[in-house]
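Retro notes
What went well: the complex prediction finally ran end to end.
Inputs used:
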Amino acid sequence: MRFVWFVLFSALLTAGPALMPRPAKMEPLSGAQKVDAAFRIAFQRAAAPRLQRAAARFLERLTAQTGIPLKRGPAASVGAANFIIDCAQTVDAPLTLEENESYRLQVNVEQTRLTSPTITGALRGLQTYLQLVEVSGKGFAAPSVIIEDSPRFPWRGLLIDVTSHFMPVPVIERTLDTMEAVKLNVFHWHLTDDQGFRVESKVFPKLHTLGTEGDFYTQAEIRHIVAYARDRGIRVLPEFDMPGHSGTWLIGYPELASAPGPYSIIHTFGVYDPALDPTNEAVYAFIDRLVAEMAGLFPDAYFHIGGDEVNGRQWKQNASIQAFIKQRGLKDEAGLQTYFNQRVLPILKKHGKRMMGWDEILHQDLPKDIMVEAWQNHESLAQAAQRGYKGLLSFGYYLDHLKLAGDYYAVDPVGGPAATLTAEQKKNILGGEACMWTEFISPETIDSRMWPKSAAVAERLWSPATVTDVADMYRRLDVVTHRLTFAGARHVTNYEPMLRRIAPFAPIDALRTLADTLDPTGIEHREVFQRYTQETELNRLVDAARGDSAVVRGLESDVREWLRAPTPEREAAIRRVLTAWRDNHARLLPHAPASALLAEFLPLSEDLARLGAAGLAAMDLLASRRADAAWAREQAPLLDRTAKVRLEVRMAAAQPVRLLVEGVSR
Amino acid sequence: MRFVWFVLFSALLTAGPALMPRPAKMEPLSGAQKVDAAFRIAFQRAAAPRLQRAAARFLERLTAQTGIPLKRGPAASVGAANFIIDCAQTVDAPLTLEENESYRLQVNVEQTRLTSPTITGALRGLQTYLQLVEVSGKGFAAPSVIIEDSPRFPWRGLLIDVTSHFMPVPVIERTLDTMEAVKLNVFHWHLTDDQGFRVESKVFPKLHTLGTEGDFYTQAEIRHIVAYARDRGIRVLPEFDMPGHSGTWLIGYPELASAPGPYSIIHTFGVYDPALDPTNEAVYAFIDRLVAEMAGLFPDAYFHIGGDEVNGRQWKQNASIQAFIKQRGLKDEAGLQTYFNQRVLPILKKHGKRMMGWDEILHQDLPKDIMVEAWQNHESLAQAAQRGYKGLLSFGYYLDHLKLAGDYYAVDPVGGPAATLTAEQKKNILGGEACMWTEFISPETIDSRMWPKSAAVAERLWSPATVTDVADMYRRLDVVTHRLTFAGARHVTNYEPMLRRIAPFAPIDALRTLADTLDPTGIEHREVFQRYTQETELNRLVDAARGDSAVVRGLESDVREWLRAPTPEREAAIRRVLTAWRDNHARLLPHAPASALLAEFLPLSEDLARLGAAGLAAMDLLASRRADAAWAREQAPLLDRTAKVRLEVRMAAAQPVRLLVEGVSR
């Protein structure tokens, strides 16, 4: 029996429904449940208001993704329903880290049953069903299946930095909707930094009035977002970065600073000097009142105090602070920061909060109930876990590095240096967070920087550790990415308008062909090219390009297959793409004089044409079974040049052509 | 001087900026004004709050369309501003039909000045500037120009039927934003019908509670929309259709009916029997209280009572009503409807409203201050104007007929049968309204049915009567259509998601290639194919296809040019499109078994391949200078078949291929 199940399961593995994250257990049944205008849901037991709202959203989403006008009212009876929700939790309760998110989903031809111990578990199951529904030869349907599912890690977060670039409420809302779709459960809100203090404070109003130019969240908006997230089974973790990254606190309240002001909003990015003065008792009184106010807005048990990148310069230059360090025997500035953290700890406790911070806060003098978030490296997480601290991984999940989905997918919180921990120590690693820092990211571009790659992170954190097949991940991701549009994400829909803006009169398919072959690079390559500030225009081809494109991945896979086992169909498919590349530059060139934004990228457009031509030439040589090492060597400068980062992008197109050229040289 | 100006103006005519509607007068200057992050605006005089909000939206839109992060604060001084708004109206006032919408816009290299007598005029000028800003060889800029502009007609409306399919508030909001972008100024809200009573009534709550299944606008939402429209210089005209199309009134209030109930919501479409009973005094008391309540929500001077399509069946079958007709000497049911209108008229007056209705209400017994909207034909408008009634044209502007932009563009309110009116009579024609009836249109598809074609209607109603060059209209429309995305319209961004839904695994460019060649047809061809109801799924290729595609228009124009004067560039461009068509079916075919939605359209996909092949063959024959009448005759069945409406679409691809085949036959 177990063997049969395994065989079925393996079949699904290679060509099963495009679920992401992949459920823990999945057993296909025969048949499928039709979804049409007659589709009705019912509750097996009294449904709490949060579950009722979730069911209403479920129907709305199902209508959005299928185009079928579903009635919102419930079925006449449980027996008459197509979809029954059987949730044991009938009275709502606050979200916690210990939330049971498990569910069981049995899709039958006539009637589907979703069973869960909690409302949050039901939410997860509803999203799985939405991913099951797909067009078929007989209209929309969900394949019959039994799914038993629960997450591997309890903390699956996404951080958004709203200080470098402010992200309006609709951006946060659609991000929460999309997070729900892939079962992410913590929204880490990086709210304050040298570039902005983005929360309205009624106790210290100069924080947001002087700490922003008007771009902050009102308390009503904060409450709205927290409730919105909670409805979707997502905890909101606020971060108030201290004692560094606190320049905007000091504009209105310079008396908290470690050096004389005046201070002002910083519109550039990096590590700056401003820091709170840990030797000043008024600082702790201030933090006490601020945390008291913010605890009323943010109900979660955790409170993130940042703690990263304190450069200590102001402390070094302040004689009285240096005297304090000596007098208390704190060794150095790091010691002073630990002293600061020790002082902040009881304040957080007093307001019912647990302390959380970046890995800089890790110090043996802090108690074991703090939570450490490793961003500098994976080792710090392993060490923290070894020493008995709870921790999360963010290192490797930095979305502003603009890596490929497969790169993020390969990072496992208990992999790498954490792999050698004992089973008990591994339990201290509670999950991870994808981090969307926004130095060069606007409300328009943020979607394509988060999605779909955060879905790959979500799968890493939800699905069993054994789910590691990258090709299968991409197979599902290429479908799921378009589902996320119906959840609200705009990485698909913002693409064409951004390309049209670059060259309104150029053929859109030619712009798309070029942009589809480019992988925009992350912050490390960006800052080399130009200094990014809040005033930098984020409207260039590098901002529109999404990277990791299915076209190039498909071509590379086709090329590998064709080199191994040539077929006419595969050859035609490869030639189609290469021919389009070869001819593309001639179509764009006439439009460059009218657009500085297009003209900038002409060198890459021209090289794409050369890559297309080289690829076609290589195929001709291969078809005539002629190895031509000399010709292959002549292609080296082109392949080398296009493999390098230029204009802040990598030409993904180079790799499949390189494979063809290498084929010729053999 | 006048001659020089004319020469310059003519030059702009053929390749000027993509403004729509075209301004009344436009004089190009040399140079252009750069738009970058330093761009600041200032007010010459105290700005009313509505103008301040408009300026803030202007900056937001400019950021959206350029990707440049503009600061929202004003310039330090008027002298330091890049854009000065000089509006004579410093105190806001209600919008009226007599609103002065004129403005003068002088764009200079250093500083632009917008001058207007009214706030609404300033709004119109701001939108013109947004259309002037375009990417250039030196970044974003607006060409220097002097524009003096005012509308030809004071009433430039767009009707949305929210009864056949409910349109949620966000749909209305983005429609108003897009209307503002093309200077439409009346939102005609068709709120009640047999399919729904979509307004919350606190006086008669059974109207909306029994007259809908929950899909209605609350009074707070109505107030929000009216204020939202007003901010954009758009009047809101509510329509409460009576005495016919009133089935949903009678569900909760059957005592108003002309035949015994019970009544229920009708989920299909057409002309139905339910009608108010004009002989019942309680009907007028009811209308009095309802209008009193609604007058508090809708401040506009006009109140639309519908009055269309009363089939009179209930009146004919009711002996007491028949007796009433005889007794009062009303002749027939039409006479009874006029009696009804005469009774309603003083009720409207009492509540400060002018009566407006469809052309059925036109009758000599009604006073001259009513407004007639001609939907049945153009003649009724001409007759009304001749008899001294004020009127609007909707006939010819029915968006649910899904005609091409050029078709709507050709319709002039004072053209056709109105062309022979005297100048004085023509003044009675105040404009027109594009009508978006929604029998087979959902919140997802409505954008592509309204836009960009309503921009062509907007130009007809705003620009001088002499602006009639269709080719130039399309040249500008093809740019403006993408600008509307930044105003909020979704006709561009909903396209790919709707195509992906049809066949998630098919190559998206192949789906696009097919859909781009299809012109979906209007209601007359739809109802023949299938019976549409509120439960019909609007997710088929005919729903995704937008029609009037630039690809086919471009091909047709290239073919005409090439037949006249062949060049290698043009030949290559034509062959590129035809080759893509020829090869497209083979790319889609493998995906049809997995999608009923794709399989349905395979016959058209196959014919597109045949059209591509026929076109290429014709080009080969033409290139070899061989006339081949026999070959051309062989293509007739294909050309005839593809010229016909099938599966509710027309294959636009047929026409350019027909031109090539005709070339061969000569």
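What we learned: Residues 640 and 654 of chain A are 9 Å apart (CA to CA).
What to try next: split runs per interface for comparison.
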